[in-house]
Amino acid sequence: MMRDFKVAVIGAGPAGVYVSDILLRQIEAKREELGLGENATAQIDIFEKLPVPFGLVRYGVAPDHPAIKYIIGALEKTLNNPQIRLMADVEFGRDITLDDVRARYDAVIFATGAVDDRPLTISGADARGVFGAARFVEWYDGYPTASPQWDLSASQVAVLGGGNVAMDISRLLVRYPDDLLHTDIPNNVYDGLAANKAQDVHVFVRRDVTHAKFSVQELRELEALPGVEIVTFDEDFSEDAITPAHMEVASEDKLTRQMVDELQTVRQMSLKMMADHTDFEGNPAKRRYILHFNANPVEIIKTEDGRVSAVRIEKTVTSADGVMSGTGEFIEVPVSAIYHAIGYKPAEIPGIPYDEQAYTLDNTGGRIAGLEFVYATGWAKREPVGLIGSTKSDALETVENLLADWAASDAKGRIAQQPDGDIADILSQRGVQPLDYAAWQRVDAYERALGAEVEREHIKIIDENQLRSVARGEK
User: Fold this and answer.
1) What is the pLDDT of residue 2?
2) What is the H or E stretch that residue 399 is in?
3) What angle is formed at CA 19 by the lines to CA 13 and CA 23, rounded to 5 degrees?
C-alpha cells in the first residue's frame, strides 16, 4: 500500500502555515502531471517552539493593527485540516534534531522567521539606553520569554529606521494606552505605556521621502494618533529634495507612488498641527512625532557613565535612483533612549548552513545548500523584508521546487528512511508533550474570556507556563 508523503515544517507562523496549505493544494493539482501517483496526498507535521502558533502575526504585529491580526482566522482554517498536525512547544535543536526529521519525513521545510536584530554598528551603539526593535516588539506583543517590564522613562527618544517596524515602534512610543483597549494588548503593556514619559519621538530615515519603505496603511495610522503633533521639515519636502526625476522613479512602482502621495498628506496635516500644536482632530497635543528624512545616524553620544545623551546625524542627499551621499553637515539631537529598527536577522539553526551576508539560511529558490529534500521559506529564505502576504509567493516557489525534486527522484518522493517511525513516539520517550490545535483553541477561548470580563475582545496571556497550563486544559 502506498503511504502518504510525510512532510515536516519547522515553524507555525504565517510562513509555515502558508507553505503547508500551498503544498497540499499543489500536490492535489499536480500529482499526476509529476508522476507522483493519482492518489498522492500528504500528511504534514508543523513544529513550533512556542506553546502557541502564528508567530509573526501574534508576536510581531503591533497591537494597533487588529486588521492584520484577522489573518489568524485564515491560518486557523489551515491548521484545522486533518492532513495537518500541529506540534507546538517542540523546539528544533533541543527536542528534535535534523537527523530525527530527515529519517522520518520525505521533506523538511524551515519556516523559522526572525527573532533577532541586525547589529547596530555605529560608534556608541553599546551605550545604555540603546534598544533593538525586536526586544521592544516582543515586550509590547507579550512574547512568552520577554521581560514583563520596559523602561519608558525617557522623555526624548530616537528611532533609527525607515521601514514599517520603525513606524510601529515609534507609533507605540507616542500612543496612549486607553486608545489600545480595543486590541489584545497585555495588561503589563497597558501599565507600561501608562507610565511612558516620552514627549518627543524623533524618527530618522537615511534617505529621502521617495525612498522610504513605509506602507500606506502605516502612514494612515500615523495620521490618526490622538494627542500627538506630527512635525516635518521644509527641506525634506522641497523641490530640491523631491525632484521630478525622483517622482518619475517613484511612479514606476504603484505602491511606492502611493506611499509618497500619503507622505505628502502627512506633510500637509503636519503643517496645520505645527501651527496650532494640535493633533489630527485639532485637540491640544502633549506629544510630538518628529519625522526626519535624509538623516543618517553616525554616532551615539554617551555620558560619562555610559548612558545615551544624544544621537549625531549627518544630513544626506539621495539621488533619484536611491544612492545616498553624505553632505558633511552634522547635527546632534539630545535623546536619552534610542531604538534601532534596521532589519531583523533570522536565527541560525543547528545543522543548517547560514548565509552571513544575506542573513538567511543558505538556499537557492528555497533549496537548502548541500541538504537534499531540505528547504526554506519565508524570512528564513529571503531575509526579513516585505509584508506578510509576500510569504505566499515565497512558499509557492519553495513548493514547486520541492515537488520537482520529488518527481525527479528515483523513489518519486518517498524519501524517508523510517516511514513508520512516528515522531510523537520519539518525543514521548524524551518527555516532550506537544500541544496540538485543540490546545491552541483552549488558549484562544481563555484569552477571549479574560477580555469579556472587562468588556474587551481579547487579553493576551504572556506567561509561558500559564500558556501551557491553559493549553492542556488545567485552567
Assistant:
1) 62
2) helix 390-408
3) 150
